[in-house]
Each structure stands twice: as structure tokens, then as C-alpha cells.
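Revision sheet: C-alpha cells.
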Amino acid sequence: MEIVLVDSNPIFLESLEFGLQHVLKASVKIRSFHSSDSCLHNIFSKPDIVIVDDALKNDKFGVVNVIGFSEQIKKMNSNTEIIFISKVIESKQLGSDLLTTDGILSELIESVKIAMHLLKRKRKVRIRKNMLMISIVLGLSLLAVFVICQFFK
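Predicted:
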């Protein structure tokens, strides 16, 4: 399973990568990018999950259209699960915006686990469909051989 992280904040990106790697252990490969451009130009595999900052800043052009970025990722692999994160949570107690990395990380880990579960289920369904198609093709082939043998008797 491969997870790609895209966030323009290098400190948050590094802590996110460390946290996910620590919790998910060796079951995943995690790659991180600081911009949508670097991500799109360097993804040669088809990631299973892409986690992208909803306020992603691009190296050249400022704020990125994350929906357009997500559509480009989906063109590479329609089965990729995309998770949007927002680091700013309004705090009524403080009357200001508050960055809560721990809360984001725990919620994000839960979202990643759900996405991983969904991907595993999709793969099982795809395998079952493939097995069914193989069975149908074999059955039809045997039927064709039988019909041909009967025809030439």
C-alpha cells in the first residue's frame, strides 16, 4: 500500500509522515511532496491513498485548485482514495484559529485506516469479478468445443 502526502508546510509534512509511519508501521510506503507540481511530476506509481492539504500552495502560482489536482490524480488511478486535510480549526475558547496537530493526526489516521479497508474490499471484489469472468470464459470455451464436436460427428 502506498500513501502520498502533499503539503506546502515542511514541518507539518514531516510530522505527518513520521506519525503515519509510526502508527501504520511497515504496512505502507509513504512518499511526501511540498507541492502539487512536484507530486504530479514525480509520481510514477499509482498511489493507493493521497492526502492533500486543502489550502495547498504551489511553488510557482500560489494557491492550488485541489479539486483539479485531485482529478489529475484520479486520472492516473481511479481507485486512489483522496483525503483532504485542513489544519485550521476554529477555536471558540481562544477566539482565534488554532493548529491542533494531534487532533488532525488522530483523525487522519482513522481516515487512512478506513480508506485502506475500502481499498482492500475493492480489490477483493475486483478479484472475484475476474475469477467469475475466467470461469464464464472457460465454461463458454468448453461449451463451444462440445458443440463443435457434436457438429462434426
